[in-house]
Amino acid sequence: MELTINGKKMELECKTAFEVRAHLGQHEDIVILNGFQIEGNAELKEKDQLTIIRKGIIPKREELESMMMSRHTPYVHEKLKKGKVAIAGLGGLGSNIAIMLARIGVGQLLLVDFDVVEPSNLNRQSYYISHLGMAKTEALKKQIMEINPFIKVDIQKIRVTEQNVKELFYGFDIICEAFDKPEAKSMLVNNALEELPDIKVVSASGMAGYDSANLIKTRRPMKRLYVCGDFENGAKVGRGLMAPRVQICAGHQANMILRLLLGIEEI
Predict the structure, then answer these.
(1) Are 92 and 40 within one domain?
(2) β partners of residue 112
(3) How far apart (Å, rounded) are the C-alpha atoms in residues 49 and 92?
(4) What is the CATH number of the domain that holds 45?
(5) Using CB atoms within 10 A of its CB, is residue 46 exposed (0-12), middle (13-18) or buried (19+)?
(6) At what angle do helices 243-261 and 92-104 cross, to 10 degrees?
(7) What is the domain count for the chain?
(8) pLDDT single digits (tens) 196-251
(9) Does residue 267 lie in a domain region?
(10) End residue of a domain, out of 12, 44, 72
(11) What phi, psi does 68 have (nearest 5°)?
């Protein structure tokens, strides 16, 4: 039967997953069948996806990407590999969203931010002491290349304005709005929806403090606009930005982007 094994299509007479492991690997190898690591043997069907991973062994480059994505639902990676997502703002939301999108294998990312990493960023953003003073675009691209070297990452160290929205984001499937200031958020959302008629925007509003995580939701106020957050708790004196709620909101945005790339538009 035809099987996909470590990213390659193969014709094998094996009828079970462990027969394939015995044929190609060793008894202690990890076996992942159609996105799930199995502990007991399982019968195979035509076109099943099987990954066999040897612990402690660095795989060949041509096998690495399939192993990285082996825990995905089958055929998801092929769609995500074609995705093109721009992230505007690389702070608590944007930096964490970029890392999540890299881990799921989105094929092309554009990282846009004009700022540098400073100490107060470290409480919620995906940066380290070694990144202090670096441009956020450069620091984040370096991290992503350590996580997933198979995606294309472009960077723009620039401030987004009304005048450059169309030029910056033309050709992308989705813009992820991840700014701090409300006026910057509305500027980007309004201009993107007006000037880029085919693009979808995933935005955020309200994730400060330490109120219940269950207040953070994803909503769809317009056909091409999705907004994540609790819509109330902005940062202000006496209520700062804390990593848990910021990252929960970032997770909402990243998950909505994932769904949109898979063609699922409902929230």
Answers:
(1) no
(2) 88, 156
(3) 36
(4) 3.10.20.30
(5) exposed
(6) 40
(7) 2
(8) 999 999 999 999 999 999 999 999 999 999 999 999 999 999 999 999 999 999 99
(9) no
(10) 72
(11) -60, -35
Write out pLDDT tens, residues 142-182.
Answer: 999 999 999 999 999 999 999 999 999 999 999 999 999 99
pLDDT value for 62:
87
Q: Write out pLDDT tens, residues 93-129.
A: 999 999 999 999 999 999 999 999 999 999 999 999 9
The two three-digit tokens of residue 44, written as one number: 């195979």
In this prediction, residues 132-140 reach a mean pLDDT of 98
Q: Which two tokens stand for residue 169?
A: 């984001």
Contacts of 89 (CB under 8 A, 6+ apart): 112, 113, 177, 178, 179, 180, 184
Gap between the Cα atoms of 183 and 204, Å rounded = 13
Neighbours of 25 (CB within 10 A): 17
Determine contact, residues 85/177, Cβ cutoff 8 Å.
Answer: no
Residue 53, beta-bridge partner list: 30
Beta strands in the chain (DSSP E): 2-5, 8-11, 30-33, 36-37, 49-53, 84-88, 108-112, 152-156, 174-177, 200-204, 217-222, 225-229
